[in-house]
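User: Second chain of the day. Same drill as before.
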Amino acid sequence: MNKLVTEPHPENFCGGNFQDWLEINLLPECNAKCSWCVEKFGYHPNHKASWEEIGDAAINTNRTNIILLGGEPLLYKDLSKLIEKLSINKKQVWITTNGSKINSQFVTENLMKISGINISIHHYDLLKNAEITHIILKKDNLINGLELLKNFNIKIRFNCNTIKGYIDNEIEMLSYIKFAKEYGADSVRFAELKIDEKNFIDLAKILNYKYGLNDDPFLMGCWKEVIIDGILVNFRQMCGIQTSCRPMPINPKQYSKQVLYYDGKIYKGWQSSLFRLADEVIDQIVDDVANKKMNKKEAIRLLTTQ
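Assistant: Same format as last time:
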């Protein structure tokens, strides 16, 4: 048996970085329909804890930075109450959203006590973004809401997945950066797709390996930060654990981060849809690998928490 263990780059997410962060899977519902959505295959607990229970569980982790995710976290009916509880307890609250609920009224009523917001907009043409996400963002609502956030020194980052036929080359990326600056964003993240291999765009190749981008993100680093056109730009590459477009590391070592699910329980990392199934199901997967009915790469993707 091969006992070799492959160590990740120390600055990787699975290499132990960002350990002072707690991610919260706040709810399963989402109003977008993105082809790469990992939560379609995610673990969905039956129980839904109250916002008080979720807040207490988050506070008890002693993590400083709390990031609210989903689903679409802005659909959470007790969002303002949870943010208030966390901020009173000196937590830095961050949110990743598709932006569909952003307007000046929603910001005023719910988001004035957050530290930062990540808005996932995957094209500078909002009609093309609607093709990707199946939600229509209203420009005026977005601009007014973001201006209010800026006035209260709340950090704004635009998240953009590089997708074949959309943002898939350097010229398009520069146009996106210009768009983000016009809307008042402080930074931009370009990320490769995790699930949707047919639309996968390799950041290293389209940018000619600039900025430290590479063919082996597990060993050489999966995220890089640079300044482009006067704005902070983050690049997030996917390794072979997350996409079949790159080779799977041999026996990869991962440092799981804590994730608080909406059932009020804390798990080591994001759970797959097979999480907590009966032991015999897990045993069947192991047998399938041993009998060559399933390859090791497929099994790891099914059973590894992300």
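DSSP finds ten helices and ten strands in the chain.

User: Great, on to the next one.
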